[in-house]
Design brief:
The complex is a heterodimer of chains A (about 240) and B (about 270). Chain A is about 30% helix and about 25% strand. By secondary structure, chain A is α/β, with parallel strands linked by helices. In chain A, the strands form two sheets. A six-stranded mixed β-sheet of chain A has the order 6-7-8-3-9-10, with helices on both faces. Chain A starts with a strand and ends in a 26-residue tail after the last helix. In chain B, about 70% of the residues lie in helices and about 10% in strands. In chain B, strands 2-3-1-4 form a four-stranded antiparallel β-sheet. Chain B is elongated and about 95 Å long. The chains are: A alpha/beta (about 240), B alpha+beta (about 270).
Chain lengths: ~240, ~270
Amino acid sequence: MLFQFKNVGKRFGITPVFREMNFALERGTFSILTGQSGSGKTTFFRMLCGLERPNQGEIIFLGRRLTQHSAVHLKNIGFIFQNPRGLLDKDVYYNLALPLMIDGASGAEIDKRVLEWASILGLRPRLKSLCRELSGGEVQKVEFGRALIRRPRLILADEPTAHLDPVQADLLMDVLWDHYKDGATVFISTHHPPKFHHPSILRYHLDNCVIRQLSPTEMGMSGFKGDRHLKMQEGAQLIEKEGAL
Amino acid sequence: MLMDWAKSFFKEAGLYVAFILVGTLLLLSFWISTNLQDSILSEFRYKTMTLIFAEDPSVEFRKLVESHPSVVRYEIQGAYANKDQIRRQYPELATVVENLDEQYFPSSALVTLRNLSGFQTALKSIPDRVEKSIVHQPPLKIATFFNMLLGLFGFLWLLILALLIYFKLERLAVKESARWSLMKMLGARASQIFLPLCWIQILQISFGGFAVLLLATFSMGYLRGLFEWNWENLSPMIQVEFLIGTLVVGIGLFFLIFSARYRKTALG
């Protein structure tokens, strides 16, 4: 068990966001959380990251309360936020290299990994550009690169493709899927779920302060209406995909 | 933007100058205080008492000062010796003093004591008639004044150093908050941000410490010329200790203020 929410309640003022919510995130899963705007997806995501504390209940991460973990455990988590957190006054290279510099990687190792990721994300020609000179989509790619360059074992992404066109969004979803295939745990909160399906993808829906896992029959009704390729088949390795996957 | 920069520049520069000036005053008051301790006050490490007798001191008195454990040293002067001393002290009155009878010059004793009250009790047991006894007090008020001055400058110096570091960190925090926040989110240890800043701070404090020593040496030379006295030099050991102390206190304060500021930095 990676994350466990035990009777978690959260409210802002008198407005409740969650009521006695129980939720578990298993290791090595690819999970997608959907919900309408304002349903509390970002709050839930921020609670996973430790940026928000619950008003009641507790969040357990790797067997210990989330608050008991030291900052070093963050090195194993790749965060991708809806609003970019990158350093706008620094160039793309610095933004991508920062996690490796924190880890004390050698210059050659940093160069190699940054170039590799810049190539994967199509940012190689922009390496020396300041982040403030990039388009919204390119900034989002830098966010992806920075979050994934360490190959973290857990990736938490909040609306990671919100600023991207469908082709770019699919490209980045492919990158996340590749990480999942390599053994990482991926949790995405979005109202634009990827247009591919796989039986191992877990889908959750947040509505009316409660989070629940969707059954295969519900998937076509809540948040996946636009997914014209959705066909659930038990045991299928890969049902259908669209774009680059 | 430029205005804000100028404001913070002048604030920090002003505090830095104040740090050097107050540091100099601190060293100067320490130097003066040490000189007082070493010269005047060390003379009064023991109590000193002058006794003036109606007649020459008796054998009992001589036995008492010889044997009493409180007595460190003593000096007995007869009437003639006192007359001679006054004659030498005031040569312009030499002829007047010469013609005066010795009965006008009483015998006296100067006794240096470890325990004043013990000796005073023992003194009552001998038959000698003591006309007057004077206990010599060290100039404690001057010493207290310089100790207070030392404490005041020490406190001011610490306060200015803390303010200097605080305002510098606040300026840096505004400029670097996005980077610190991101690094915190990426699991960076606080030391990874603290250490590069600390080196700059060490340089700044060291430079300030050297400036204090330079200014203090110059001021001591000036004071020597102003007041003729047997001034002792401020030992190089004290100067090194001052520099090291400044660095240790500065880094300690920097660490405390940085830790408090970094805790407030949002994650991500």
